[in-house]
């Protein structure tokens, strides 16, 4: 049995090699006859119809006036649209295909647009209500009344007591000045009285400069003797953010013992991109939401735009002020900030109509009768569902609002094919030419009338019946002679003969079932996507939903944790996705934070194959983190 199997494989191998040699010989024979065939004259007109599926067979286009078997004239074959005058990237889609892929169009119009700028902010305290408690003289802390951080205090509430020898001496000087003034009250010398008054005022002012209150000075006058211990009071109301006062601690002048912040008003600092700065103005409304308070929105306004730019992240900081009477907004909390810009009336299009390639923005113009052309546009402000068009369109232009990603993929593939001089089945072009390449090419057997003197040159075309399935025979240019091609009957199913990879249907040939292990015969398979990488100290975990991605709508997910393992919830995450093939453009989507450092963005994979997703993670105050993920998407697209 093993001997028979080896014999079968040998026979199959010989057959494959013979077939390849025959095709190659026919190609060179045809190449030698190109100059002879260039002078052929005919009265009919046949612009390569019926052989379009055979990629690269440019020479067959000279077979004018040669009626097809089964067709009385070329009018029996549905003509493909003439795209010779179409601009680069234009595509034509039949009505049935438009309905299948869901192409929708709408006219552009002027509308009121209010841009929403979304970013992430950090809660801080109102710096105008921030105070520090220090001593202007040296001494020792005796008793502490406010002994914990986070405790609320009221203005005038006692904080601690301090013993200061310098302060004690100053109190004695003040009491002596008062006593001297009283003794000179009956003096006839006015200058002496004035001098005593000035001495009292000077001693009083010195006590005030050392933060002794008027009430404490009055108590000193009533008491008549110095108090070795001075009580220090809170200068403002708020929350204790720092406490350094400890019983028995010696303090130098200028030592900060308490920090108190008024949290009844919260400041939120948020970073916006350089391109968004012009749209943000002071006093514009803003809102913020927090993971700690689901379903609750806090309203505030922009109070300050910082004058400097972060050169690494290319962002500008904006301060937004929010009332915080219940102290729900805690310093250090992260929130999702939305800035409402001024409303304007301008020309707008739906956001879904715009394709961002990374270098420019495109829309597809609907020219009618299924014909679509890509057009570059310059965009301005954006709202939640619309975007301003500054250049490239005018009011009333019809543009594609859905399925434009598929049109863009077809447009780029068609452009790449045109530049390479190839014709054939490329995406939607297959629909356009299906009627043509399904026609039988009965050449040389009663169906072909060669020009006089050329009948002998067409003998090699015998046996070409049924070659409608030979799409993709790349590299067959110039086969106008087609000599040496006898025996080509029945070659249906030979699609994709590019380097012999695509010999579909050969699984049923004896000995071919076990050829999957041969080089070049393996096929890719999709698998669940879950990949974790460490980049710049951060951990990025990339997944998709569904776990095994298929052509169509897919949810990209990225979980970000910092070097200490804590989730990063204040980042801006951008997904840029494309296929690594000529003519394909980049598309991008901004991911939204859901919870616990997980960011999600919905994308559309137009076809199966290898896709590349570039992830950009921007964390405030840090350089952007960029990483690429490659994976296989199942499905055949359209």
The profile of the biggest β sheet is:
8 strands, antiparallel
The residue-averaged pLDDT reads 75
Compute the number of strand runs: 31
Shape: elongated
Secondary-structure class: alpha+beta
Low-confidence stretches: 24-87, 422-524
- Number of continuous helical runs: 8
Distance between the termini: 44 Å
- Overall domain count: 5
What percent of the residues sit in helical stretches (DSSP H or I)? 10-25%
- Report the portion of residues in β strands: 25-35%
Radius of gyration: 42 Å
Largest sheet: spatial strand order: 24-25-26-29-28-27-30-31
What does this protein structure show overall?
The protein has an eight-stranded antiparallel β-sheet with strand order 24-25-26-29-28-27-30-31, with no helix packed on it. Strands 1, 3, 18, 19, 20, 21 and 22 form a seven-stranded antiparallel β-sheet that branches. The protein is built from eight helices and 31 strands. 18% of the residues lie in helices and 33% in strands. The chain has 638 residues and is of the alpha+beta class. It folds into five domains: 2-77 and 439-517, no CATH class; 90-114 and 343-426, conserved putative lor/sdh protein from methanococcus maripaludis s2 fold (Beta Barrel); 117-126 and 263-340, Beta Barrel (Elongation Factor Tu (Ef-tu), domain 3), CATH 2.40.30.170; 127-261, RNA polymerase II/Efflux pump adaptor protein, barrel-sandwich hybrid domain (OB fold (Dihydrolipoamide Acetyltransferase, E2P), Beta Barrel), CATH 2.40.50; 530-633, Macroglobulin (MG2) domain (Immunoglobulin-like, Sandwich), CATH 2.60.40. α4 runs antiparallel to α5 (190-209). Mean pLDDT is 75; it is low at 24-87 and 422-524.
